[in-house]
Write the structure tokens for this entry.
Amino acid sequence: MKYKNLGNTDIKTSLICLGTMTFGEQNSETEAHQQMDMALDYEINFFDTAELYAIPPKPETQGLTERYIGSWFKQHNNRDKIVLASKVAGPGAGWIDHIRNGPRLNREHMTTALDASLKRLQTDYIDLYQIHWPERSTNYFGKLGYEHDHSEQVIAIEETLSVLNDFVQDGKIRQIGISNETPWGVMQYLMLAEKHNWPRIVSIQNPYNLLNRSFEIGLSEMAIREQVGLLAYSPLGFGVLSGKYLNNQKPEGARLSLFPDYMRYSNENGIAATAAYAELAKDNNLTPTQLALAFINQQQFTTANIIGATTLEQLKENIETVDIVLDEDVLSEIELIHQKFTIPCP
Ligand SMILES: NC(=O)c1ccc[n+]([C@@H]2O[C@H](COP(=O)([O-])OP(=O)(O)OC[C@H]3O[C@@H](n4cnc5c(N)ncnc54)[C@H](OP(=O)(O)O)[C@@H]3O)[C@@H](O)[C@H]2O)c1
């Protein structure tokens, strides 16, 4: 395994981070435990979860993912082996009312959220506590352009950060991070931390994959200069970049066969780009998955690649990409495809 520093801290996290959002829906507790066992065998020390999970969000499965991680810690008595990341949900326009009747990023909601996560995870601290998405409406979750709403009333980032500061002071969390954020949001968190001597964000968890390289506009520079590295999520674009949905295939039990509403990475240009990357992979004796994940692993601004899997075979293939290095020729070919299909699936 390879390791990187988490932000400006001396915490070393594995370049491959285990994503867990299938635990509790597509994966049972036993399968979840097998995945965590395998990850540990490969010397992965970084797991990512959220109060929201399992995915898709439903009242009856909310919190199950954290519960399965908690039961694994209890069985193995190995909490100290893992840098554990979780998240507090931001507001949702009706789609997550089962969480506190609609979550907000204020003291009351965040305190309830954190205490419930700690309980489910059977731990008394979370290493990296992340804001899952912003309180304000901005361009994330598939939106490339920004539309400003002058009338919007939101909890200020200053209030959210002051609550995170108290959590750190109380020892309930160690580091803080953001997710689905924009360059403006990153700079707000950094400026407010400096102004009040509050904790500094150490990471930004955003989508990043061959079909969505929007992170490179504005955020990649910030990640490097400000030491707020990328935790890349959906590295295979929900599995699309494995190539298994090409030619209208609908593999049984796969995410997009089960949940056809998840269309973020399946528009016409996304499919055409996937076919081009799959061809490039084949020409270089790689699987499409290997090409897609290795590309993320070797970006300078990547702190960790948050892989997801529903089987141990997938997990093995994904983790082992840590040893693949794409050469200059392959990288140039990727750029040619990228020029033709630039961010087809934000
Ligand atoms: N912050 C956020 O808003 C946010 C959003 C999304 C994800 N995340 C985090 O990022 C993690 C990963 O996201 P993701 O699950 O969307 O990642 P992804 O890599 O885009 O998709 C993973 C899915 O692709 C399929 N797959 C994985 N490896 C494969 C392989 N080798 N061959 C064929 N199919 C394969 C599996 O689904 P099937 O077997 O069902 O096909 C797997 O569940 C999540 O667990 C979560 O921790 C965060």
Summary: The chain is about 35% helix and 15% strand. The mean pLDDT is 98. The longest strand covers residues 173-179. The pocket of NAP is lined by residues 19-22, 26, 48, 132, 179-180, 205, 233-239, 242, 244, 254-255, 289, 306-310, 314, 317-318 (CB under 6 Å).
